[in-house]
Request: fold
Amino acid sequence: MSHPSARPERASRPGHQGKAIGLAVAAAVGGFLFGFDSSVINGAVDAVEGEFDLAPVVTGLVVAVALLGSAVGAWAGGRLADRWGRTRVMLLGAVVFLVSSILSAAAFAAWDLALWRFLCGIGIGIASVIAPAYIAEISPARLRGRLGSLQQLAITLGIFAALLSDQVIATSADGAGEPFWFGWAAWRWMFLVAAVPAVVYGALALSIPESPRFLVANGRSDEARRVLERVLPPGEDAGRRVEEITRSVEEDRANAEGASLRGPRFGLLPIVWVGILLSVFQQFVGINVIFYYSTTLWQAVGFDESQSFTVSTITSVTNVLVTFIAIGLVDRVGRRPILLAGSLGMAVSLGAMAVAFTQASGSGEDISLSGPWGVVALVGANAFVVFFGASWGPLVWVLLGEMFPNRIRAAALGVAAAAQWIANFLITVSFPPLLDTFGAAIPYFMYTAFAVLSFVFVLVRVPETKGMELEEMHGEAYSRPGR
Reply:
């Protein structure tokens, strides 16, 4: 293994920050596809239900099956990334996105649309693992939080782009079920549009370098040094960093637990459980109830159904904008303080919504809030989106990308992301029966309780990673809070 001298490298790497940002943005295109492909079906649901004459339960399955595919993709993607490399798995994800978008557009029955949406979910799961892992491994420590937050920003931009794309296509065709270009129904074009970012993602995967941590782990230290020379700040010795990564990898290999997810607590390492629970709490506070079932809330506080696109757009734009708060603060304030503040804010806003819905009249989706209670629920919902979008939304992805030891990062991230998708599925399918049985107040009280528990969990178990090199992440010793 060759090493450069220890002299400062200021002259040789003047554009290091721009290169690191460029690579992180390229990887974050996977997050854009994650958001776009998971949301694009929203504008097509009614037209698909009409065209294939589906019962509501079948429609729900077609919509939700992508979440199960995402769990499979996340689990498999993490393991494949450790065997094939990050960029090859990015390319695999791009191919999966491309194929699923084309075949979803050409679907001839509910069962094959469900199959292609499951395949799409696999691509979403792969993207949810690879982007944060690659960004963490390519980023200098002082920029890692901000660059890791690009994943969530890309997801929110993808959601907004899908919403806007669906609306433009449906409006141009005078309805999602109406013929559009070449006689194809508009809803089919909604799926087909997703092929464009999939091709872009594939081209980027072919052009960006492999993660230096993966290269070192596979005996390609000279290649790793060349990649690090492009992204490290002036004055930092790429050869010395390669030596540090090599030592970390060798220590992990010498320690059976360091090279495996297996551990003493219910079969997994403690730090893996921290990642799993971070993922579960991110979903169990009910964020996707706000996005998937927002029409019920808006109608309850007095909005007409025809206005749902406008209010949903406002919520989506808000979700995008508040991500910049996390980007601006994460490397200055740290991960833990932002998560703790977010948990408190979510608990208060969700609690306000729950109390407001105790005053609702009607049942199921046919509920209404009169007087000031409608305003309380509306303000609470938007405050919840702000607190989530500025904290738990982006920072969970930052932590999952950086908190695991080098040898298990991708695999552990895959397990945590799979747990996140399963939690998303459980919250999504449980809300309608809870709403029908108990009304809206009980579910929102439940989400409030999870927000409170998330505060306690961060306080007790989640470590601080601001400014730490990835080579400092070592399981049990590292998992002490406040480190």
Notes: The two ends are 33 Å apart (CA to CA). Residues 260-483 form a domain with the Growth Hormone; Chain: A; fold (CATH 1.20.1250.20). DSSP finds 21 helices and two strands in the chain.
